[in-house]
Amino acid sequence: MSKRVLISGASVAGPALAYGLHRQGYDVTVVERAPSLRGSGYAVDFRGDAFTVLDGMGILGEVRGHDTHMRGTDLVDAEGNKTGELPSEAFAGDLEIPKKDLTRILHRITAEQVRYLFGDSITELEQTDDEVRVRFEHHEPAGFDLVVGADGVYSTVRRLAFGPHSRFVGHLGMSGAGFTTTNFLGLDHRVVLQSTPGRALLLFSANESDRMTVSLSFATPSAEVDLLDRAQQQELVHAAFAEAGWAVPRLLKEMTDAPDFLFSSACQVEMDRWSQGRIVLVGDAGYCAAPTSGMGTSQALIGADTLATCLAESNGDHTTAFTAYEQRLRPYVTANQKHGREAAAMFGA
């Protein structure tokens, strides 16, 4: 009988791990709170060993086909006048694609072999010597040999198995709102950055020439703003950018009704251990390095691949595998988190 694994989260780390575990003969289920694949999110980029992971999954060529082909970043002043320029690598890494394309690809290569439970979430975890009993919001309770939290900074699995978010989530002093709107500035594979101490506006248009992605970042004292409702979050954005001119007033107006509005804070997740018995964390759930690190997607892919490899090498002995997983990955995570903190500190300079 194949081992049963439940993975919480269907963004990047979850499906990537599901792919690796299915190839080893595991019976994999992925539960995702969203009712379907998420079609929003910023572009994501890849660096270093992430390319080896994508190649091993047989999707590197397809991923490259969605390259945003960004040509650089224009620095502008308060009136929108260009004052400087940065190379494309400053934000796009070695390869950049829209996040929705990556999640679609990862789902496609696993959908026929992995059971996906959309529109549901874990409510209770109970470990025994032989399994983890799981209760869901909607599906019937079930037992699994392993449970994996790949469900982001505010991981349900981590909260249930390790403790409250406040113990592990550290705020780096900034939050941001994101959405898309019409490309009224006529951007063509370019990024525009307007930055002052404690506040930044970033705009870009890539593969959808008629659309422009907007990011409005500003200093915040606590990540608790993530828990506010949309209206309250938008009030904070309006307050932070109230005195800004140029395109900002129009962007603030269009933000109000944007169907893909997102709000999140720059946070890091730091833990002494990423596993507890038969439960383990991967990606942002266990070791988020913050968006300022530029390594979130690469770290998720490499983390998932490392965990799958360690389980294979241990012949399914999860205790041995989880120990090896942490020993191999932690130096890489530590370096990424250091870079994330340094970049966030520059934001407030």
TrEMBL record:
Which residue intervals define the domain FAD-binding in the entry? 4-330
InterPro entries reported for this sequence:
FAD-bd (IPR002938), FAD/NAD-bd_sf (IPR036188), FAD_aromatic-hydroxylase (IPR051704)
Give GO MF terms, alphabetically.
FAD binding
Where on the tree of life does the source sit, at the highest rank? Answer: Bacteria
PANTHER family to which the protein is assigned, alphabetical: MONOOXYGENASE (PTHR46865:SF2), OXIDOREDUCTASE-RELATED (PTHR46865)
Q: Which protein are we looking at?
A: FAD-dependent oxidoreductase
* Source organism of the structure: Nocardia terrae
